[in-house]
Amino acid sequence: MNRTQFSCNHPTSHLATMPTEGRLVEYQSMKTNIRQIPCLFLSVFTATALSCAAVAAVEAPCGGEAQGRKGWYVAELNGAPALWHDGKPVPPIMFWQWELQERDVKSMSDAGIDLFAMMGSFPHYEHPYWRDDGTFDTAYYDREFDALLGWNPSAQVLPRIFATAPDWWSELNTNEQFVAEVPAGADVSIWHLPRESFASEKARKEVAPYYRRIVRHLFERYGGNLLGVHVANGPWGENFSWDAYYRKRLRPVAGDQSEPMRRAFVRYLRGKYGDDENRLRDAFRDPTVTFENVKVPTMAERLRVNADGWRDPAEGRKVLDYFECHNLVTVDMLDYWCSIVKEESDGKLPTLVFYGYTQDERWPVECDHRAIAALYGRPSVDMLSAPHTYHRRDLGGDGEMRQYLASAALHGKLFVDEGDDMPHLEMLKPKPDHRAHAKTIDDSLALLYREFGNTVTHGVGLWYMDLKKETFRDPRLYDACGRMRKWSLESLKHDRSHISEVAVVSSVESEFYLPYREQEGKDDRNPCTRLYLEQMGEFYRAGAPFDWYLVEDIDAVLSRNYKTVVFLDCQYLTDEHYSKIMQLKGNGRSLVWFHAPGYASQTGLSASRMKALCGFDYGTTNIVAQDFGNYYGVFSPGAGLSSSRLRDIYRRSGVHIYTDSDVVLSCNRSWLMLHTAQGTNCTVRLPEKVSRVFEITTETPVAENADTFTWKLPDRSTAIFLLESHNSKAKEGAAK
């Protein structure tokens, strides 16, 4: 099966198999028709990726089409993307270890879990499939697969297969290496370098035959037990730029300044400015620049901001354009390797990548995933994953999944949460990991159930991660994982659609225009740090669910008629997105704005543009609200809207409030989760009467024919409720 066939014959899917230059030519010829593609919400600047492939949403097959397919794939089921195998939906609940252990595999299998994930970065570097003598070596992979299948012959496995060039290759090919401008005297002992630049075409060309061979080998030898390939690259396999290893110093190092990246930057600029040097000079405010002499911005150029702390495009777009290019290079790299998986498996293996993490780390924008809108449009990628937030994951925190989940679902991508919360057994070790929070078995169960509650209420997947080894070896933990797999199976039979009346919108390119985030304890002029770290936590405790979108999908926000729309980090807006947001003013809706919405555009900074958009002045330092007649506006200069204030805003626009209790809440049409640190009697008001409410962690019937119920939450606990509708019935297609 060729690439075009696999990608459902989308009008742009064939571009991804072309050389870069060919993609650019054909993309330019298609620009007049590209807006006719369904769900295409990306700006022309984002769409002009390094690969220049058009970015259209993949419409996942549904109904009979999904049921009639063979192999593993992602397709819609009852209102959300789902994992399917040979025409039947499968609960995407897995267990992960670096190298799977017999005791854990057998115990999880006995509990009902037969999906496993394995391998990480260190085994790849220690056991490269391409050896320095030119041989192809599968011994490590065969040993791990054979051991697993010896313990459970019916196991299905998702291995991480790294596309990173072997150490010896990077050491030999010095001109292809990632290059960073490291500050004088800096400690670089934490670096795991040299590594190849993500933009290295030579690395792709020379590693690709061996990547094809390892995928083909696993597919041919273990195809009946292979549920997909986790395509990995970059630090920890998470597709960050290599300078992410420098993160502990919390300062940018101006990577990647390699020659491959410079060439990629030139190609990007030629595409964006139509190969017109005069347009390039106008944009850069540099009469001497040419496409031949363009260089990657230096650290000094990247650190330069105006007196108000902004990178002003009116003073030159060089740094801003590089940020766009740098992020799109990663997407193009992932698309390249995922396409190989599709080709070598005849389209029968889904792909998963780490990408699209919501921006809750204090990292430079070069290290983050800022081209997620482009990746959502790549047919080669089926699933996305990330560890949930590290900042509010203690008991009582929301454990936010780090993905723009409403946008991911809109584009047919299945998200799989990496559940790396560490059970209490980690705390019993002589030197426990500093990220461990559970002290007792009850703590462990509360955290594991919170992971599951977040996944089942969003219709996504989960792998339980034994990150530090032997942390699940308690019969009660195995049993809990098995119970959650059982209820995940049950969830596939019910309506999985969202009923949120609140939308949160992000423009992840906004930080291209803001100063770098600072380390904790310093004056941080970048408000996005606290918007993600603090403000997001208030939304989870405001008593109503919300859907989180990228601004590129603003059409979906418009069409679904949300009652409250929050613009979290929308400082940068294209003119197209700006005009569509203006259409949200009306219908008694509440619009909530943070910091400086619409202040930045491709051409400059404008206080009047912001004022016209949100009705409030740039530089306002207090939380203010105003009734504009047909809508209600609220402005906050930074993180500062409490959960109780949000509930007041929601009520004003008619949003249904499920509970006034100060607890974490998540829900969809059929499932509801509550989580708390402090015990409370929580009263829940449902938007409509249901035939039955059933709490699954205790397997307790709660209410019948009810639209209100009360549940006593103990300290440090999670409760998950199945809400059975009067009209619910087992959906078409039995779950496997």
Computed over alpha carbons, the radius of gyration is: 25 Å
Oligomer: single chain
Compute the number of strand runs. Answer: 22
Mean pLDDT across all amino acids: 89
Number of helices: 22
Looking across the biggest beta sheet, what order are the strands in? 4-5-6-7-8-9-10-11
Sheet having the most strands: 8 strands, parallel, barrel
Short characterization:
With 736 residues, this protein is α/β, with parallel strands linked by helices.
Could you walk me through the main structural features you see in this protein, from its secondary elements to its overall organization?
Helix content is 31%, strand content 18%. The strands form four sheets. An eight-stranded parallel beta barrel has the order 4-5-6-7-8-9-10-11, surrounded by four helices. A six-stranded mixed sheet has the order 13-12-14-15-17-16. The protein has a five-stranded antiparallel sheet with strand order 18-19-22-20-21. Strand 10 (414-419), helix 16 and strand 11 form a beta-alpha-beta unit. Helix 9 runs parallel beside helix 13 and helix 10 (259-272) packs across helix 13. The longest helix has 27 residues, at 318-344. The radius of gyration is 25 Å and the shape is globular. The model is unreliable at 1-62 and 729-736 (pLDDT under 50).
